[in-house]
Amino acid sequence: MNKIFDVFKNKKAFIPFITCGDPSLSLTADAMKVMEKAGADIIELGVPFSDPTAEGPDVQAADERALKAGTTPDKIFDMIENIREDVKVPLILVTYGNVVFSYGIDRFADRAAKTGVAGIVVQDVPCEEKEEFEEAFRKYGIAMIMSVAHTSKERIKMIAENAEGFINCVLTADTKDAFGDIRYMVSEIKKVKDIPCVVAHDFLTVDSVKEIAGLADGVIASADIVKICAGYEEKSIPRIAEYVKMIKEVL
């Protein structure tokens, strides 16, 4: 957990997200290497799921393609193990409760820890229902990353009190004042705990990154790299490197 927290010391963190296995796990591995070299501070790895209700259409389509390509949690863990000597930044798995349950919560946490995973986001498990997951993750030294939205309101305090690693501030579909909502979420969290707050955004521009960096501790590119992989497939690597370098330079 300290490994995640250390990332945010004296700088803003950039966290690119990629769906594992889209279009292939070999490309995912190569993308992780170039993202770190280009300046990524943490990398989020999406574990494809058949019903990713918390995701936008781009990630949903990527999950479908990855599953059709035969991507499984075991293959993802194997891939991470094979490149862990080359990729040193903290890795966060983004998944769903059913994936972890089907694999076995303790077994999933154990395998994740052995591959050097630092944190896990379980998209459809709210703070009130996280105890069973959190107990296993904590046993193996893995942070359970929680999310808040501006609509969380009074729940923000509870989530912040129980948060580990960092908190993901989510912009929901009904957001009309994105930067105002970010300001509100970060302010409410920091009243409770001095924990890094990062903002997940589907389409980052130079201006939006600058604005977010002035309000939060980091930014997650939640769909941009997924779109690159969808458009360029096995030719994505140089474009991914260029994108990460651009965003990191802005931060």
Write the SSE topology:
Elements: H1 2-7, E1 13-19, H2 25-38, E2 43-46, H3 57-68, H4 73-83, E3 91-95, H5 97-103, H6 105-114, E4 117-122, H7 131-139, E5 143-144, E6 146-149, H8 155-162, E7 167-170, H9 178-192, E8 197-201, H10 206-213, E9 218-221, H11 224-232, H12 237-250
Parallel strand pairs: 1-2, 1-9, 2-3, 3-4, 4-5, 6-7, 7-8, 8-9
Helix pairs in contact: 2-4, 2-12, 6-7, 8-9
* Share of helical residues: 40-55%
Through-space gap between termini: 23 Å
Overall mean confidence score, pLDDT = 94
Overall 3D shape? globular
How would you spell out the order of helices and strands? Answer: HEHEHHEHHEHEEHEHEHEHH
| Major sheet characteristics | 9 strands, parallel
Tally of individual helices: 12
Protein described:
The protein is of the alpha/beta class and 251 residues long. Helix content is 49%, strand content 16%. It has helices at 2-7, 25-38, 57-68, 73-83, 97-103, 105-114, 131-139, 155-162, 178-192, 206-213, 224-232, 237-250; strands at 13-19, 43-46, 91-95, 117-122, 143-144, 146-149, 167-170, 197-201, 218-221. Strands 5-4-3-2-1-9-8-7-6 form a nine-stranded parallel β-sheet. Helix 9 links the parallel strand 7 (167-170) and strand 8 (197-201). Helix 2 crosses helix 4 and helix 2 runs parallel beside helix 12 (237-250). The longest helix is centred in the last third of the chain and has 15 residues, at 178-192. The chain is globular. The model has no long low-confidence stretch (mean pLDDT 94).
